[in-house]
Amino acid sequence: YSHRKKQWYQRRVRGGRMASNQNIPKPVKFLFGGVSGMGATVVVQPLDLLKNRMQLSGEGGAARAHRTVFHAGVSVLKSEGITGLYKGLSAGLARQILYTTTRVGVYTTLFEKFSGPDGSPPGFFTKAGCALTAGGIGSFVGTPAEISLIRMTADGGLPPEKRRNYTSVINAISRISKEEGVLTLWRGCGPTVGRAMVVNIAQLVTYSSAKEKLLASGHFQDNVFCHFASSMISGLVTTIASMPVDICKTRIQNMKVVNGVPEYKGAVDVFLKTVRNEGLFSLWKGFTPYYARLGPHTVIMFLLLEKLNSTYVSVFVK
């Protein structure tokens, strides 16, 4: 296997593909990261909205408004119309501009910095460190848009008198700052950053690793089919790895405070109580709808990113 892998690296370097990709300016890499994330968001925004509505359904011990994702979708269509599925799209796009642009740009920069002189990629633990750093920085930068997205997508499920009625992500960020203080834009930043770091380790590292192994096997060419297969593998691993962290994050953000005492002391407390009271596999509740959003988003984002990179190289890199 190592011999085939070495031959693959040498073919790529001789063909100039790897060297050319490394000649793409860093600002362009940051831009391509954001654009690819935005394109994926336009496609999966309805799934994101339904996921948020499902997570908030039954909050505070109330009767669950939605029994399944299908039921939630039908409910939104009946009460809000087809455009209701795209509420919060401006916040979703803003999140990609801030979060994905930063994380993909930082990861790509670090990946190339630690690559070998012959263009060979860094080892697994180095890639994991790059992904952790990229995920943490990107999530911190994107938290204001994340809060705006959650509130805007949840608004339609609230009684009219309790709705915030944000008109756009700019309006949301402006009103949150004025009405609740600037620091509120980073509420829940800790668990959000922690989840993002797990997602990035799984998503970015497994994508590049899966692609390397598929190409090195000799059964795949560096084309759309290979990118699609790598993306699906990456999306699956990311779903499995991130769901336990995601459920802890969601329950902390939605926990009840009775007489000043919070329901959970922290993420570890959520984890232990969930496993003890509901069983180990409850950490993966909602696996199918979660992957239904994350899988396509991963596939579309990486396919767009690969296409943007290859187009830039063919047009601008001589």
List the helices and strands and how they pair.
Layout: H1 2-15, H2 17-22, H3 26-56, H4 69-80, H5 89-113, H6 124-155, H7 169-180, H8 189-216, H9 224-253, E1 257-258, E2 261-262, H10 267-278, H11 287-316
Antiparallel strand pairs: 1-2
Q: Can you put this structure into words, describing what you see?
A:
A hairpin with a 2-residue loop joins β1 (257-258) and β2 (261-262). The chain is an all-alpha fold. α1 crosses α8, α5 (89-113) runs antiparallel to α6 (124-155) and α9 crosses α10 (267-278). The longest helix is centred in the middle third of the chain and has 32 residues, at 124-155. Helix content is 73%, strand content 1%. It has a two-stranded antiparallel sheet.
Short précis:
The chain has helices at 2-15, 17-22, 26-56, 69-80, 89-113, 124-155, 169-180, 189-216, 224-253, 267-278, 287-316; strands at residues 257-258, 261-262. By secondary structure, the chain is mainly α. The longest helix is centred in the middle third of the chain and has 32 residues, at 124-155.
Descriptive keywords:
73% helix; mainly alpha; 318 residues
Which percent range describes the beta-strand content? under 5%
Biggest beta sheet attributes: 2 strands, antiparallel
Global morphology: globular
Overall number of strands: 2
**What topology, given as strand order, has the largest sheet?**
1-2
State the helicity in percent bands.
Answer: over 70%
Helix-strand topology string:
HHHHHHHHHEEHH
Mean pLDDT: 80
Query: Could you tell me the radius of gyration in angstroms?
Result: 21 Å
Count the helices. How many? Answer: 11
Q: Which blocks of ≥5 consecutive residues have pLDDT under 50?
A: 8-19
Alpha-beta content class:
mainly alpha
Distance between the termini: 33 Å
